[in-house]
C-alpha cells in the first residue's frame, strides 16, 4: 500500500519531536483504536468525554505505525516506542491538514447548509468517482476535528476533494473554511436548524456565509437560488471577495436551472440547464429535496471542470444512506411493507421534505401511511412553536396514523386534529411496542427525528422483528 505521509513529512508538518525508530511512513490516519488499520498513525485526540492517550496501548496492539501524543501526557504512556510528540494533538492534526491542502492540486469543494450537507456531499462523491480520483469527508466529519482529519487524510494525487463543513454557533465555520480553502463553496439551504443558538434565520445565513471567507482567488460560490435568503448569501459572498457567484434551482435567475422534474416513489427524473446545455438525468433517491441537492451537484461538477454528462449519468445509481432516507422492504406475516429510515437528523425543513416523501410513497391495498416523528433538537425557545407548526405538514402528508415521542413532540400532539389517529409517548423506548404492533402489510412507515432522540433504535427494532423482503427497494 502506498504511503499517505512519510515520517519525515509528518514531523516537518506538525513541528513534532520523533521518539523511537520511525517507520518509512504511514498509510492512513486514525483517531479511534477500534477501527485503526495496521500501518496507520494514531492521533491521541482529547475529546469532551474521552482522551485518546488512554487508548495508546490498544492502538499499538492494533498495529499503529506510530502514535502522535501530547508532551504533557508522555510520562503516563509507559513503554510506547514509536511516537511523534507534540504540544497539542488536535493542533498538530490541524497543521497536518493545512500541509495536505498546500500540497494538493485537487479541485476542492466545500459544502454547508442547514439541511442536505451530507447527502449532497455523498452524491457529489459518488458522481465524481467515475471521472477522477475523489477524496471526501467520512460520515458527517464536519466539525473542528472532522475537517482537519479529512484534510490530513487527503492523498496528494487526488483530482477532486469534497468537504462538509458544519456549525452549531456563529464563528465555527470561519476557521474551518480557511483551512480547506475551497475552489467552490456550496450552501444547500438555510433553515431553522440550531435555531436555539441564533435569534433568527438571517443570523443562521450569516454563520453559513462564513464559508465564503475561505474561497480561493478565482473561486466560486454556489447558492440555492430558491432559498428566501439567497440574496443575503450572494451579498455575503460578494463581501468575502468571491468574484464568481452562481445559483441553482428553479428560479428564473438560477445559473444551474431546473427545467422539469417528475417525482416517482423511488426515484426522480429531471431536465436541467447546466453550463448552457440542457441535460436529462435520473436520480436514484426519491424526493423533491434530493432533486435540489442534485442540481447543486451538477453545478459544482461543472464549476470543477468535471464532465457533466458522466456526472449526471452516475446519479441514477445513487442509494440513500442509513438514517437519511434509506428504504427497507420488509415482510409482515401477512404481506410486505415499506420502512423509510430518516432517523439521523431533523429540523423544520427536513421534516417537510420527509413528510412530502411519505406522501409520494404508494401504499398497497389496505395499507396506510404512518409517520413516526421525534423531537427536532437545538431549537431553543422556538421549539414549541416549530413543533406545533408541523401539524399542517402532517395533515398535508395524508398520513393515516401518527406516532410521536420526545418532550418537544408533545406540542405537536396537542394540536393535531382529533380525527387523525395519533399516539404520543414520552420516549422512543415507550413508543417502540406501539410501533411494532401498529405495522400492517401494505403500510409505508416513515421514521424521522433528530439523532439524539434515539429513533434509530426504532428502525433497528422494526428491521429485527420483520425479515427483509428484498435487499433494498430498487427503482421501478
CATH topology title of the largest domain = UDP-N-acetylmuramoyl-L-alanine:D-glutamate ligase
Largest sheet properties: 9 strands, mixed
Q: Structural class of the secondary elements?
A: alpha/beta
Helical proportion?
25-40%
Number of domains: 3
CATH homologous superfamily of the largest domain?
Mur-like, catalytic domain
* Number of helical segments with 4 or more residues: 16
Large-scale geometry: globular
How far is the first residue's CA from the last residue's CA? 41 Å
Rg over CA atoms:
23 Å
Oligomer type: single chain
> How do the strands of the widest beta sheet line up side by side?
9-10-8-11-12-13-14-15-16
Average pLDDT, all residues: 94
CATH architecture of the largest domain: 3-Layer(aba) Sandwich
CATH class designation of the largest domain:
Alpha Beta
Unreliable parts = 471-476
Structure report:
The chain is 31% helix and 23% strand. With 476 residues, it is of the alpha/beta class. The protein folds into three domains: 5-88, MurE/MurF, N-terminal domain (Udp-n-acetylmuramoylalanyl-d-glutamate--2,6- Diaminopimelate Ligase, Chain: A, domain 1, 3-Layer(aba) Sandwich), CATH 3.40.1390; 104-317, 3-Layer(aba) Sandwich (UDP-N-acetylmuramoyl-L-alanine:D-glutamate ligase); 326-465, Mur ligase, C-terminal domain (Protein-Tyrosine Phosphatase, Chain A), CATH 3.90.190.20.
Amino acid at each position: 500500500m502506498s504511503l499517505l505521509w512519510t515520517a519525515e513529512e509528518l514531523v516537518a508538518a506538525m513541528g513534532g519531536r520523533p521518539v523511537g525508530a520511525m517507520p518509512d511512513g504511514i498509510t492512513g490516519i486514525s483517531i479511534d483504536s477500534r477501527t485503526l488499520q495496521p500501518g496507520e498513525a494514531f492521533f491521541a485526540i482529547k475529546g469532551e468525554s474521552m482522551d485518546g492517550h488512554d487508548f495508546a496501548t490498544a492502538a499499538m496492539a492494533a498495529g499503529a505505525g506510530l502514535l502522535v501524543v501530547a508532551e504533557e501526557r508522555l510520562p503516563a504512556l509507559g513503554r510506547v516506542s514509536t511516537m511523534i510528540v507534540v504540544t497539542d494533538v488536535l493542533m498538530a492534526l490541524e497543521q497536518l491538514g493545512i500541509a495536505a491542502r498546500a500540497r494538493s492540486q485537487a479541485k476542492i469543494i466545500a459544502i454547508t447548509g442547514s439541511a442536505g450537507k451530507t447527502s449532497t456531499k455523498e452524491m457529489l462523491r459518488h458522481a465524481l468517482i467515475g471521472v477522477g480520483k475523489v477524496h471526501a469527508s467520512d460520515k458527517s466529519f464536519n466539525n473542528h476535528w472532522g475537517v482537519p482529519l479529512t484534510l490530513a487524510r487527503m492523498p496528494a494525487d487526488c483530482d477532486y476533494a469534497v468537504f462538509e463543513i458544519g456549525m452549531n454557533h456563529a464563528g465555527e465555520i470561519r476557521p474551518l473554511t480557511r483551512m480547506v480553502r475551497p475552489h467552490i463553496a456550496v450552501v444547500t439551504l438555510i433553515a431553522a436548524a440550531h435555531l436555539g443558538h441564533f435569534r433568527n434565520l438571517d443570523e443562521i445565513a450569516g454563520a453559513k456565509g462564513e464559508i465564503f471567507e475561505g474561497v480561493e482567488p478565482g473561486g466560486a460560490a454556489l447558492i440555492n437560488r430558491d432559498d428566501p435568503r439567497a440574496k443575503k448569501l450572494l451579498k455575503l459572498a460578494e463581501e468575502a471577495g468571491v468574484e464568481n457567484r452562481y445559483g441553482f434551482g428553479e428560479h428564473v435567475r438560477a445559473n444551474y436551472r431546473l427545467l422539469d422534474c417528475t417525482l416517482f416513489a423511488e426515484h426522480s427524473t429531471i431536465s436541467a440547464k447546466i453550463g448552457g446545455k440542457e441535460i436529462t438525468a435520473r436520480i436514484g433517491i426519491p424526493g423533491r429535496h434530493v432533486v435540489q441537492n442534485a442540481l447543486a451537484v451538477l453545478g459544482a461538477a461543472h464549476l470543477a471542470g468535471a464532465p457533466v454528462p458522466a456526472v449526471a449519468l452516475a446519479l441514477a445509481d445513487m442509494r440513500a444512506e442509513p438514517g437519511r432516507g434509506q428504504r427497507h422492504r420488509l415482510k409482515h406475516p401477512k404481506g410486505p411493507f415499506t420502512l423509510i429510515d430518516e432517523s439521523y437528523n431533523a429540523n423544520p425543513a427536513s421534516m417537510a421534505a420527509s413528510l412530502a416523501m411519505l406522501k409520494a410513497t404508494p401504499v398497497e391495498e389496505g395499507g396506510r401511511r404512518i409517520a413516526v416523528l421525534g423531537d427536532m433538537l437545538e431549537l431553543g425557545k422556538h421549539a414549541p412553536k416549530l413543533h406545533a407548526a408541523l401539524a399542517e405538514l402532517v395533515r398535508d402528508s395524508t398520513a393515516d396514523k401518527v406516532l410521536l415521542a420526545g418532550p418537544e413532540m408533545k406540542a405537536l400532539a396537542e394540536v393535531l386534529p382529533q380525527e387523525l389517529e395519533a399516539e404520543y409517548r414520552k420516549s422512543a423506548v415507550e413508543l417502540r411496542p406501539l410501533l411494532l404492533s401498529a405495522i400492517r402489510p401494505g403500510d409505508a412507515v416513515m421514521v424521522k427525528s433528530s439523532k439524539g432522540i434515539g429513533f434509530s433504535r426504532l428502525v433497528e427494532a422494526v428491521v429485527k422483528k420483520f425479515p427483509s423482503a428484498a435487499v433494498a427497494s430498487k427503482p421501478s
